């Protein structure tokens, strides 16, 4: 039986608001999937006592739509989105949140529903946060991302997917996790715990949405940098993915907006330059208008709203999506 912290997210608060506000009721999101995969058979690597205590906050009153985030992640997990007509492809979705929270809806479940509608089996990752009390704290998000990729491939038959068609997609700080996975997929950041760890953690494609990349001034996102490396970081180069791009990095899809006020577009430009130098096949979309954290919902009415269709077309062209 799943622990309370890992049960499907409760929508009762939103439904209560919907009863009082017909406009919200009309925009109520689809039900949350109930299939959950916990990443670790027991306590995660580097666990201390006590484990963080999970808390879920819904910002619906200020955002106007269901907009949840989670903190206190002691049991990292994946929520599985199964399509009605699966095409065999899979995506690990890694939401952002500045490494101090994990955004659930606008960079997670919304994307999972959109990809499932296109036939793609999706896994929304709820990864541990480095500042919540872990040994080797800066490696904790990458530990969870590597483990998630391996579990997806190990469970390919159960999930109905092709283990050679697995994509990693990350948003903002989750983009940093995804870029770290793309460049350090074989880094020994944890000891193997079972047979699943024999599988490769390398994504077949990488998709980075307005990603945090550099940990060095002047273009670092200071909040993510502090949460990942501490108040006095000394390992900026080691945790800046653009410094670790090689020919082994998977083909990459990049999205950023020029008017991003939170994560400067130079993060994507620096990563793009490194990909080009290593001759890694890349498609980049740099939108004039979009801001930051737009996901799907907040991109509506802006040029950046085109990104899901552009991504799907690119993944099909690469032969990963049907």
Oligomer: single chain
CATH level 4 superfamily: Alpha/Beta hydrolase fold, catalytic domain
Structural class: alpha/beta
Rg on CA atoms, Å:
18 Å
By CATH, the architecture is named 3-Layer(aba) Sandwich
CATH fold-level name: Rossmann fold
Given the C-alpha coordinates, what overall shape results?
globular
**Strand-residue fraction?**
15-25%
Whole-number tally of structural domains: 1
How many alpha or pi helices? Answer: 10
Helix content: 25-40%
Structural notes for this entry:
Helices cover 29% and strands 16% of the residues. With 322 residues, it is α/β, with parallel strands linked by helices. It has a single domain (34-317), classed as Rossmann fold, CATH 3.40.50.1820. It is globular and about 45 Å long.
Characteristic key phrases:
322 residues; alpha/beta; Rossmann fold; 8-stranded mixed β-sheet; globular; disordered N terminus
Topology (SSEs and partners):
Blueprint: H1 12-20, H2 22-26, E1 36-38, E2 55-58, H3 60-63, E3 68-71, E4 77-81, E5 90-94, E6 102-103, H4 105-117, E7 121-126, H5 140-154, H6 156-159, E8 166-171, H7 173-183, E9 205-209, H8 222-229, E10 252-257, H9 266-277, E11 282-287, H10 307-317
Parallel strand pairs: 5-7, 5-8, 8-9, 9-10, 10-11
Antiparallel strand pairs: 1-4, 2-3, 3-6, 4-7
Helix pairs in contact: 5-7
Describe this structure in a few short sentences.
The protein is of the alpha/beta class and 322 residues long.
């Amino acid at each position: 039986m799943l622990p309370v912290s890992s049960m499907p997210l409760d929508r009762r608060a939103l439904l209560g608001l919907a009863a009082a506000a017909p406009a919200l009721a009309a925009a109520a999101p689809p039900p949350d999937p109930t299939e959950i995969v916990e990443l670790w058979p027991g306590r995660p690597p580097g666990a201390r006592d006590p484990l963080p205590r999970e808390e879920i906050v819904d910002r619906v009153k200020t955002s106007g739509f269901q907009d949840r985030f989670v903190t206190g992640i002691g049991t990292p997990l994946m929520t599985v989105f199964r399509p009605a007509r699966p095409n065999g492809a899979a995506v690990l979705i890694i939401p952002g949140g500045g490494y101090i929270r994990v955004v659930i809806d606008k960079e997670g479940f919304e994307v999972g529903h959109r990809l499932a509608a296109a036939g793609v089996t999706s896994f929304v990752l709820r990864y541990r946060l480095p500042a919540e009390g872990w040994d080797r704290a800066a490696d904790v998000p990458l530990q969870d991302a590597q483990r998630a990729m391996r579990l997806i491939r190990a469970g390919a038959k159960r999930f109905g997917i092709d283990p050679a068609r697995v994509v990693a997609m990350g948003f903002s700080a989750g983009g940093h996790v995804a870029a770290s996975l793309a460049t350090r997929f074989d880094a020994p950041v944890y000891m193997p715990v079972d047979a699943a760890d024999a599988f490769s953690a390398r994504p077949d494609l990488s998709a980075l949405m307005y990603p945090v990349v550099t940990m060095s001034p002047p273009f670092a996102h200071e909040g993510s940098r502090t949460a990942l490396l501490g108040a006095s970081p000394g390992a900026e180069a080691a945790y800046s993915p653009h410094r670790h791009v090689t020919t082994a990095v998977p083909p990459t899809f990049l999205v950023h907006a020029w008017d991003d006020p939170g994560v400067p577009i130079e993060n994507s430009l620096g990563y793009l330059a490194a990909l080009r130098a290593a001759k890694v096949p890349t498609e980049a979309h740099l939108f004039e208008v979009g801001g930051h954290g737009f996901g799907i919902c907040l991109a509506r009415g802006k040029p950046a709203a085109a990104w899901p269709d552009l991504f799907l077309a690119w993944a099909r062209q690469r032969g990963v999506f049907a």
